[in-house]
Specification:
The structure is a homodimer. By secondary structure, the first copy, chain A, is an alpha/beta fold. Chain A is built from eleven helices and eleven strands. In chain A, a hairpin with a 5-residue loop joins strand 10 and strand 11. The longest helix of chain A is centred in the last third of the chain and has 20 residues. The first copy, chain A, starts with a strand and ends with a helix. Chains A and B meet through helix 8 and helix 9 of A and helix 8 and helix 9 of B.
């Protein structure tokens, strides 16, 4: 397998991309190659400095970088020789099997959207994450910010995507799928949630997935109620950032436990985009080498 | 001042209401009276068991109780002799100066809505809470679930309510007001947030309040960006329940620090309803005696 990595994306690129790739060599399959997209002279120097000449790390030379604050659609069109655009070209032409970046989420989304099949049943892709719970079981949460103002039917699509992901990648049989809401009853919530509940209930009765009803946020991290939790990208993104904020408060205060350790973005390894035709993973903008290494492992698992 | 307390509301009523009222006697002003609304024989027995015969605790006899799972509007109409309905009657006729309950939030809302002036500028009341931050400063967050599917103008009203509250009750001069969103830029967010941003920016320029722009959830508990954070009740309620869930996970794991101690609902003392013409405070359904005591202190402060 060939895993493409945007070596220029993220706050600490390209140094951490090179170091992370070298770290990952020991943990990925022996026939997996890491393909770094980026400025070749810089990347070669960094690889030499690390004393790495493994044939399992290749470089595809690119010139430009799409910055975090650029308009994603415009930048994607204009910077045709940037690491993200070239990476997606390689993915579309199957020169690589998967692509991951800790750079511009917006540009990653633009690239991912272009990979969707015409007339796909899933209207909108979603960013998913696997969150820890106190029981040790994992919970899949989606969408994390790709699609705000979701139509209720889109939440139903997320339920399918999330259930499939939980089964395939986490090995959960018949995953329990819940809708994030402000109360357990079907009548609770905003217009979007009430309408999505009806669609999801019908889909559950039709056996499309195992719908267990609404989940309140207090049960999100207990894994008691659900294995897959779907929500609008606005709400999902707020939860994600809230957890990041709390994680960093705990870290500052020197407070931790196994639950919070599981929240460490460095070990979580990026968030896959579901609902597209190729494996794409988004890493954290502040990724360290360890985080990039784990992003590569996540990408390999997701691609398998 | 006369503070009315629904003695029958909450999971552990009426025992904790009586104990909490007795605990509060030492901390409230010496001329403040606590008026308990509830079944008189039971309340008298409980007061006697505690050896309390203070003239500063009075009983207003009521018969019914509105349960947590009842339809609030119907129950409010039908149970005219319930502790919450009679409490609001006393508040409307100024026999008490403030009212608080750890019972049905829905019924409290119905009562509160009836207290609004005709043609009030504020279209919808909001539930506010004061959350701790790592700097020790407090942050006002609203709405916590009263109004889901907020019109953008309603978020602007919340900004006014929150700023007024921060100034009056927390002593913050010119409080910084922010809109909870998924990015800092004005173009970020869902339709509601983007539209609210424009209204709030205009209000800020007109000097209605000190609008500092969008705040991301990662900065909610740092007090670096804002003193007042406004959001839709759907999002606010999810944040509230998420924090409760995390608080309880930390508690189970024996993990704590001063930040998380500040999250303890027992010490936080309930959430005031803003945007109505009388002081009303909602306590936590699982309130203990200590939580009821703190709810009474919050209510007294809010009423002053």
């Amino acid at each position: 397998m060939r895993i493409g990595i945007d070596a220029m994306g993220g706050d600490f690129a390209p140094e951490v991309a090179v170091k992370g790739a070298i770290m990952a060599l020991d943990d990925i399959a022996s026939d997996t190659t890491i393909v770094l997209f980026g400025e070749p002279t810089i990347l070669e120097t960094l690889l030499n400095n690390e004393g790495c000449n493994s044939p399992r790390i290749e470089i595809v030379p690119t010139e430009d970088v799409i910055e975090m604050d650029e308009h994603a659609v415009k930048a994607f069109r204009q910077k045709s020789n940037s690491s993200i655009v070239v990476g997606f070209q390689h993915l579309a032409t199957k020169k690589i099997d998967a692509f991951a970046s800790a750079g511009s989420t917006g540009a990653m989304m633009v690239g991912a959207m272009q990979l969707r099949s015409e007339g796909a049943e899933i209207e909108r892709p979603a960013i998913a994450t696997v969150i820890p719970s106190i029981t040790g079981a994992s919970v899949v949460l989606l969408d994390l910010g790709l699609n705000v103002d979701c139509k209720p039917a889109v939440l139903h699509h997320y339920a399918k995507l999330g259930a499939e992901f939980a089964t395939r990648e986490l090995g959960v049989k018949r995953p329990r799928v819940a809708l994030l809401n402000i109360g357990k009853e079907a009548t609770k919530g905003n217009l979007q949630a009430r309408s999505a509940y009806k669609i999801m209930q019908g889909a559950g009765e039709d056996g499309e997935y195992n719908f267990v009803g609404n989940i309140e946020a207090s049960y999100l991290f207990t894994a008691e109620v659900a294995d897959v939790v779907v929500c609008d990208g606005f709400v999902g993104n707020i939860i994600l950032k809230l957890m990041e904020g709390l994680y960093s408060i705990n870290r500052k205060c020197g407070t931790t436990n196994t639950f919070w350790e599981g929240m460490d973005y460095e070990v979580r390894g990026g968030s896959p985009i579901l609902g597209i035709d190729a494996p794409v993973v988004i890493g954290h903008g502040r990724s360290t080498a360890k985080a990039i290494c784990n992003m590569i492992l996540t990408t390999e698992r997701h691609a398998r």
